[in-house]
Amino acid sequence: MYIKELSLKNFRNYEQEKIHFSPGTCLIQGANGQGKSNLLEAVYNLCFARSFRNLKESDLVYWNKPFYYLQGTLYLQNRFFKVEVGYDLLKKRKVAKINGRTTRQFRLAEYCPVVFFLPEDLELVRRGPEERRRYLDREISQESTLYADLLSRYNRVVYQKNQILKEKRHNNEIQKLIRPWNRQIVYFGSRIIHKRAQVLSTWNKLAAHNYSVLFQNDQEMKIVYNNFMGEDVLFAGIEEIEEKFSNEIVLVEKEELKRGFSLLGPHRDDITFLLGGRDARRFASHGQQRSAVIALKAAQIQLYSEKKEKPLFILDDVFSELDEWRKQQCFLLLRDAEQVFLTITKKDSCLDSFLEQATCSSFLHVKEGKILEINSNGKNRTIC
Amino acid sequence: MLFSPAITRLVEAFRRLPGIGPKTALRLAFFVLSMENEEVEEMSRALVEARRRVKHCSRCRNLTEQELCSICRDSRRDNSLLCIVQEPRDILVIEKSAQFKGQYFVLHGALSPVEGIGPDELKIPVLLELLKKGEVKEVIIATNPNVEGDATAYYIAGAVRPLGIRITRIGFGLPVGGDLEYADELTISRALEGRREI
Lengths: 384, 198
What we know:
CATH topology of the domain at 1-112 and 309-384 in chain A: Rossmann fold
Largest interface: A-B, 21 and 21 residues
CATH architecture of the largest domain in chain B: 3-Layer(aba) Sandwich
Structural class of chain A: alpha/beta
CATH topology of the largest domain in chain B: Dna Topoisomerase Vi A Subunit, Chain: A, domain 2
Helix content of chain A: 40-55%
Number of helices of chain A: 12
Helix content of chain B: 40-55%
Oligomer: heterodimer
Radius of gyration of chain B: 21 Å
Strand order of the largest sheet of chain A: 2-1-4-5-6-7
CATH class of the domain at 1-112 and 309-384 in chain A: Alpha Beta
Order of helices and strands of chain A: EEEHHEEEEHEHHHEHHEEHHEHEHEE
């Protein structure tokens, strides 16, 4: 998949811009606050009709303007789609159109293979369980609306149940009140756990391979899914998970009442990155932790290529965080994507050497919401 | 203040209605001010009288001006079937289909701990008293298919089961005439779980 054309009107700090792209790498350079990430935001919005940084629609509109409007052409599954996304600030209405037809559910999103890499992703291994869970949910929800739906219902049920646990402690009727919610926690939760286990096992196979190839490291990398069933979950069907879950959730009832919140379920899951059998969070160096994340990203790109088609790869200012060697390894990933959007604050020698060998398709310079295209189609004057 | 206190008060009153935002409230207020005196008085009487006269049916909690609602008074209806709905408007929908000949019970909501709605607020004890009289042989639960509606259904099922009454839930699934392609995935997976032999 790639984006052929994008025009922005009143979007973030862009008043009006139109850009043509081709498959390959698109390098976006500019100082901080000039609009590099906003351009990525526009690309993402075109594919998913929402913001990747979870910004409110009203925050996407250019200062003091009544609306924003994005229009673009995507090449997906061997054909072109004209996509329009807009938001009217006064009517508070969002409109998304595919090939000129208004769609209520933006179904294109499920088909768009997009992998994005944000600076905070680099810290995935060392951050808290909540961030890792959010990462997992974000990635799975992107390609499965069913998962996103299950997750939002699940979270609603946990929220309702926690209210009961918080309020009415030590009451005889409390089990009767909790069980209707537990039943749904088990229903939605089992499906969430099952999907997470499936996705993690596909990630695992490829990520382990990538880690050893990219970083010439003989330590084996493994991602372990921590849930109430442990490793058994990998071989279990939904019914089996449901059965175990409904048995175990009864056992924690007393403890839940004492502590005042839900103790069992996918909202407490985590993933552990193992390097050579040891928890990378505690035993690996900062650099190794980042290598593990790069290996995971590579796996996600490969998976899209296997299952759907070569994806779009968006990297927001990741390179400034990496050392030379990891940068080099990261560049290798770019070749596996159909199109890459890459933001940088300034060029460096390492990037130059990459661009020399790459099919550098375009180089954009962003300044105060204006885009200057410096060159296109191949290696010539300015940078390549 | 842009408008006189009376206008502001009227706008604020309209804004309390569901689905009415500030702009619509303003439009309605200006419209009222352009109406004839008698018309406005009739409208305000309608509001006050409806609110004063209409109450909950003492048996099923449907809206009525009498002790019992018209459905509860109808001797041709089957008293052994009881359909539990969330809102009075759900009765209208089911009645329109003319498929159901039993009685109803209106909960006026669904369990929602975060909004402070528990079994007592839904008058589930009243429902249980009604069922204990022994006339009802089957309870059909028709709460909404969302997490609160489902929790309510499970709660009622748990409370009714000891009475030995048959409990059913209306089927979920694909809208008739709907295209399989356009149904969301959760609807389809639920419809599959609730499949029947034909």
